[in-house]
Amino acid sequence: LPAPPGKPILIPSFTEDSQPIIIGIRWERSEYNGGSAIIGYLVEHRRLGSPHWVKSSPGLCTFPELTLSGLEPGWRYQFRVRAQNAVGLSQPSQLSDPLTVTLQRAAVSPPKFTLELKDTTALENEQVEFVVHFSGTPIPKISWFKDGFEIFSSRRTKIITENGKSSLLIHQTALNDEGEIKCTASNRAGHVTTRANLILE
Fold first, then answer.
1. Is 114 within 8 Å of 136 (Cβ atoms)?
2. Peptide bond preceding 110: is omega within 30 degrees of 0, i.e. cis?
3. What's the pTM?
4. What is the DSSP secondary structure assignment for residue 156, as one 8-state letter?
5. Name one GO cellular component term (predicted).
6. pLDDT at 107
């Protein structure tokens, strides 16, 4: 009989809508074929604690890998693999690490400003900074506006957004910078806005 194959390694992944989990299973081929060519590998799984092993695929796997979906959520599963040649089946491989199958819904939360813009008064030619802190899943897209027109980083303005914080820096304020500064945060769950006035003296 062939030697047992290697311990199965599980690679779980989720479909786009995070519906049933898809599991990739890989293992090392048997080191010894028992004097007769290995025809394929039999993959079996069971719910943790159950004595009953179930075939994971209808036939034998010719390559040492299998993609599986449709396992019932809410259970923990273990996998094992056996090699088959003309004589029969090998002893089972080592059992895989247990895998919990959950129906994971991708967490989505609308954007929120945890620190909003404040009205700011500055002298001409001074440097001014506006800062917001935000949260949301997926990470919101942050945009800055002056009197309704979107602002981008340039020679005079610098926008930095990272780790839940976004700042707009105006290097040397001029009289035409006076007006309404607006910041928006949006993701697929929603859209929020915060506003403040820049006043020059």
1. no
2. no
3. 0.50
4. S
5. M band
6. 62
Q: Which two tokens stand for residue 27?
A: 């293992």
- Put residue 34 in one of left, alpha, beta given phi > 0 → left and psi -120 to 50 → alpha: left
Q: Which two tokens mark 146? A: 């002056």
Taken as a whole, the chain contains a residue count of: 201
Residue 171 tokens read as 């290097």
What per-residue string of b and e applies to 79-107 under the rule 16 or more CB within 10 Å gives b?
A: bbbbbbbeeeebebbeebeebebeeeeee
CB 56 within 8 A of CB 44: yes
Say whether 109 sits in a helix, a strand or coil: strand
Residue 183: closest CA among 140, 126, 122, 154: 140
Residue 54 CA, chain-centre distance (Å), reads 31
Report CA Rg, the chain.
29
Q: How far apart are CA 120 and CA 129, in angstroms?
A: 9
Domains of the chain: 9-101 (2.60.40.10), 109-200 (2.60.40.10)
| pLDDT attached to residue 26 | 94
* Residue indicated by tokens 């008064």: 121
Pairing of strands 120-122, 109-115: unpaired
**Tokens 């036939």 map to which residue?**
59
pLDDT at 45: 95
Phi, psi of 46 (to 5 degrees): -150, 155
Q: What is the mean pLDDT of each run of 10 residues along the chain (201 residues)?
A: 92 60 88 92 93 92 89 86 94 92 67 95 94 91 96 94 95 93 92 96 87
